[in-house]
Structures are given as C-alpha cells and as structure tokens.
Amino acid sequence: xxxxxxxGYLSDYILWWILFLSLLIHTWCFFKFFPWRRHRKLGLGxxxxxxxxxxxxFVAMAGESYLxxxxxxxxxxxxxxxxxxxxxxxxxxxxxxxRDREWSVIKPPGVRRIAFVGDSFTYGWGVQRPEDRxxxxxxxxxxxxxxxxxxxxxVAKPGWDTGAELKPIQDMIAVYxxxxxxxxxxxxxxxxxxxxxxxxxxxxxPDPQFxxxxxxxxxxxxxxxxxxxxxxxxxxxxxxxxxxxxxxGTWGRHxxxxxxxxxxxxxKGVTLRVALLPFLHLLLKPLFHAFDFIHGLSxxxxxxxxxxxxxxxxxxxxxxxxxxxxxxxxxHEYLRRCHAAHLHEFGNFGFDFHDHGFSGFGGNEAxxxxxx
Length: 372
Prior knowledge:
Elements: H1 10-33, H2 40-69, H3 81-90, E1 112-118, H4 120-123, H5 134-146, E2 150-156, H6 162-174, E3 180-185, H7 217-227, H8 232-235, H9 237-246, H10 248-267, E4 271-276, H11 284-300, E5 308-312, H12 315-321, H13 329-340
Parallel strand pairs: 1-2, 1-3, 3-4, 4-5
Helix pairs in contact: 1-2, 2-7, 5-13, 6-10, 9-11
C-alpha cells in the first residue's frame, strides 16, 4: 500500500473518495432514472435515504481530510495518526534519543551543568516548541542573568520511570560531568511496578481486532477519543495508580529505585533535586502519599545526601483553577514560575529571581519545600 508513515495509508484515503464519489453518482442516477410516477412513495423513501448518506459521507470525508492533512495534535498514548504526525513534525532528537541539542562530552570551563531527567512531561509531550518546556525556560532565566555559566540538559524520554532513569543519570554524571541532577517525578512513575494482565493493562489499551485503524483517520480518532476513554481498562487508570501508591510491596520496590538514584548522586558528589510535577487532579491523595514517602525516605538516608530539594505542585490548581492542560506550554510556564522562586540555589549564584518578577506561586497554591 502507498503510505507516508505519519499520514496513514494514502491508497485507503483514495479508496474512501472513490466510494464517496460512487455514492454521489448512484444518487444522481437514482433521481434521474427512477420511475417516479409508478413508485413515488418508494422513491421518496429511497431518495431521502440516499441524500442522507451523501450528507453523512460529505461530513465523514471532510473530517477524514482534516484529521489526515490538517490536524496535528498529541493524545494520551501517542498512537493515533495525528499524534504520529505531531511527533514527525515537531520533534528532533539528538544522537542519544533525547529531545535536545547535541551535548558535548567536553565540559566548558566555568560552566555548571544541570540535567533535568524525566519522562514525557519533561520531554515536552504536546509542546510544539522545545523552548516552551520548563527546563528550557529555566535555561533562559540563567542566560538572562549570567549567559554561558549554566547549561541545562533535557534528558527525558516518554515512558521512562524512576527505574529507567537511573542509567541515564549515571551516564550524565560519568560522561557529561553534570553538577546537578533534577529528577522530574510524576505520579505515574510507579506505573511499571504495578500488576497487569492480558485483559487489563491501562498502559496499552486494546486495539480493535477486525479494523485496521491506519485505514481511516476518522475511524482512528473516534475510536481513541470517543470509545477508549469509556472502557473499564482506561477509566480505572487513576484507581490503578492509587492502588499502587497504597500497596506496601509496590512502595518498597519503588523505594529501592529512588534510593538507588539518591545514593548514586551522593557517591559522585552531585547535587540531587527532586521536582514533583503536576498530574491529574484525581491523583491528589496519592500525590500527598508520594510526598510523605519521599520525605520519609530522605529523612532515613539524609546523611547520604548532599542536598535534596522537593517541590510539590498540586495539579488541582494547574488543571482546574488556572485552566492549564497537562502537556501544554502553559503548564510548563507555570512550572517555570514555581521553580523560579528557588532557582537562586541552582549553581549557588545567590541570584534572587524575586527581584525579576518571578515570585513563584501566585499566593494560594499548596506547596512544600524540604532542605536537608
């Protein structure tokens, strides 16, 4: 089949047009040659049905054309055709597969390197311009104060969790000699530790067995946007995460993952900061649990830490009060504002961002900060 990858199968698109044009021709022929004098009532019924099908076909082909060639957007799973096109058009990866510039192994003298390590949020899923991501906005703040003295590195890939982030952190310290690591923690970083079955896996919703989603952008869109959110596997996603946060065994394994990151940074003399990023408001209770957990973990091994800085930004304020969508430039700007209030501690510049209009939270947001 003719295919352009991110645009679906071109031959299928042409086939849909052939079918639609065939419907129009058959409808015209029906009204032209049908014996109306002998079967008027029957003709009106069939004619009205054909006109309705033509109108429906027109709407379907308009939607198909828009979704296939105009619409560029991401979704929760990144598998729809518009989402594939978004990644094809708006993401450029370096040689290590991260959405950032190429990094030099040779560290310039006098430069402090800060690696932001995370998953799809830090990667900028849904953010068209990389400079709109919060690590890049933080880089611009440093550049505005003392250009060339701080290098922010975005080390993130969609799907990474705490366990998968340990090896990149080790590589950034050993190969690129970073001075600070910001572990960008999202509540679903516990995801891969949770049990799944063949019939229940919220991270991989089922594909239809008898329909090829690549044959039609409209069918693909309706299936993923209208049908999938209503199936139990997807609807129970947040409950599934909450059950993981509440399970002692799962938390024990997650504690080992976080402990390994903290201990490695301590052994290498690298400053570690943990940023708890916003998530869906349905996870507020588990987020508090996560903060209590990391707080307790850091207290148990605080003698191993150089310095640990925790932020908790509740998504109730990001998603609801401010009307900011997760994975949007507005969400990253909000995070930049939240972190900017304390960025004077990054690099030990003694630079107070409050003097530059970056007061962090607007006043009523719930947040916590811990220094050890």
